[in-house]
Design brief:
Length: about 130
């Protein structure tokens, strides 16, 4: 027999059901705006509505949390962009090496081991099979 309450048992199995206060605040504001204006509204209106409903003493903490969330998302975007740029550079280099491989095999020449190693080195990470 478990010492968990019914609520704790549900949350233990389905942790995604637990909302942070910030998530709950935004969800409520979005529901209200959707009911009031089913034709649509701007994202910033959710934030404004959510902050408006907060007690004054909690607004500054909520704003700080929003700033942290914003900066975390911005950093994640910059990291994803940098990774994308790196992948594009690897793809360009792989295309160049494959072109050299085709030229050599088309001419009936032997392919240097170093060229094959470079093609493999670039191919495996791009296929997601190596880091």
């Amino acid at each position: 027999m478990s010492d968990l309450t019914d609520f704790e048992a549900i949350v233990a199995v389905q942790p995604h059901l637990v909302m942070t206060p910030l998530q709950a605040m935004f969800a409520e504001a979005e529901e209200e705006l959707t009911a009031e204006r089913p034709e649509g509204f701007e994202i910033h209106e959710i934030v404004e509505r959510a902050l408006f409903h907060l007690p004054e003493v909690e607004r500054e903490a909520a704003r700080r949390e929003l700033y942290v969330v914003y900066w975390e998302a911005r950093i994640a975007d910059e990291e994803a962009l940098a990774q994308s740029d790196e992948l594009q550079a690897q793809r360009r280099e792989l295309r160049r090496l494959l072109g050299r491989f085709e030229d050599l095999t088309g001419a009936g020449s032997s392919v240097p081991y170093a060229l094959l190693a470079d093609i493999a080195r670039l191919s495996l990470p791009l296929m997601g099979t190596a880091s």
